[in-house]
Structure formats: structure tokens, C-alpha cells
Amino acid sequence: MNYSNLFKGRQEGFQKFGAIYQLPIVRSPYDYLKSFYQSGPILDVGAGVDLYIKKLLQLDEKTYFSLDNDPSGTFTYHQISDIPHGMQFTWIVMNQLIEHLTIEQAVELLTNLKIILHPEGQAIITTPNIFHPNRYWGDPTHVTPWGHNALYGLLTGIGYQVQQIYRYSKNRPPLDPLTWLVERLMRRLYRIDWCDSIMLVATR
Fold first, then answer.
1. Domain that holds residue 15
2. Max CA separation in the chain (angstroms)
3. Which of 53, 91, 136, 164 has the fewest CB atoms within 10 Å distance of its CB?
4. In this structure, what CATH number is given to the domain that contains residue 188?
């Protein structure tokens, strides 16, 4: 990874998408998938033993493929080299995984995933929002904190076209006016955000 290009890409990401508060909010990556998925094979990278996406979209073995090296689960592939040559996926989802990798590991994985992403497909990558007070730092297995602009720089440096970046949260936003006013004041003072995650959508 050329770190000067990563820094340059981070600046470009800020110019294109702005600060964290300017990102549009979605309910979750799963709602996004459910709204836009129509057909085609999905590769669930870091799927987890529950295979939630498979259940959510009611997919079968012909359309759902999982990639995970967790020995406690049963997955289609245990490493990216297991994927047959020439196979491509309409959707690639990497949910809350990239923060567990070093920068070099992230570059290698995303480079290989780009090869198997269909030319008309989409990649969805989510990660903890580093501007949330404890979302990233609450897990000792996290390795690399990815701000949304740095993640943009990483993807564009590899050759992806970043279409949009969103933020989302498991918790609802503050509803009463006083709490909302305090929240706005706090985020300006301390540069924090109530949304606990970000989601980036990219194409080849």
C-alpha cells in the first residue's frame, strides 16, 4: 500500500462526502440488501456461524456463498483461494470485518475480492464508526480504525468506484428536542457521533 496515496484518497473522500455528520443515515446494511437485492450470487465474507444473510434473503446454496475461517462454523470457503477460478459474485458483503485486519491484510483481501466482483455488482463494506464514543474501542480484537474517508481512500486506491457512504446504528437517535440539542452540542465539542457504524457501497 502506498501510504501517500491513502492519505490523498482520504482527502478526496472528505471533499466528496464531507464530515461524518454529513453522511446519510440508513437503518442497517441488512435493510439495504433486502431493499436492493434481486438476484445473483452473494459472497458473505466473514459470514459468522449464523449465516444471517442467507436466512434474511432466504437464499439457497446456488446463490449464497460464505467465506470464513472460523473452525466452529460450516462455510462454503475457508480462504479466498478456495473460490473456483472465474467465479464472480453480484454482491460481496464484508460486514464488520475490515477493522480486524492490518492495513496490508485489508489491501490483499480487497484486491482479491475486486477480481471476483461482477462488473455490474456491488460490494458492501461496514465497519465501526470511529467517531462513536466506544463502538470501535470496545472490542480488543479490533486492529485498524477506519474512518469513512480513509476507507474511501483505501478502496479507490485499489481501483474500486465508491458510490456512497452511509452511517447507521443499532440504537435509535435521540427523539426529544432537549436531548437532540445536547447531542448536537456534544458532537461539535468532542467530534463524536451517535451512529455506531458506517457502510460503504462500491463497484469495480
1. 3-203
2. 57
3. 164
4. 3.40.50.150
Query: From CA 164, how far away is CA 182, in angstroms rounded?
Result: 29
Domain tally for the chain? 1
Burial-class residue 120 by CB neighbours within 10 Å (0-12, 13-18, 19+). Answer: exposed
Amino acid identity of 166?
Answer: Y
Reading the chain (204 residues) residue by residue, the pLDDT tens digits are: 677 888 888 899 999 999 998 999 999 999 999 999 999 999 999 999 999 999 999 999 999 999 999 999 999 999 999 999 999 999 999 999 999 999 999 999 999 999 999 999 999 999 999 999 899 999 999 999 999 999 999 999 999 999 999 999 987 766 778 877 887 787 778 888 889 999 999 999
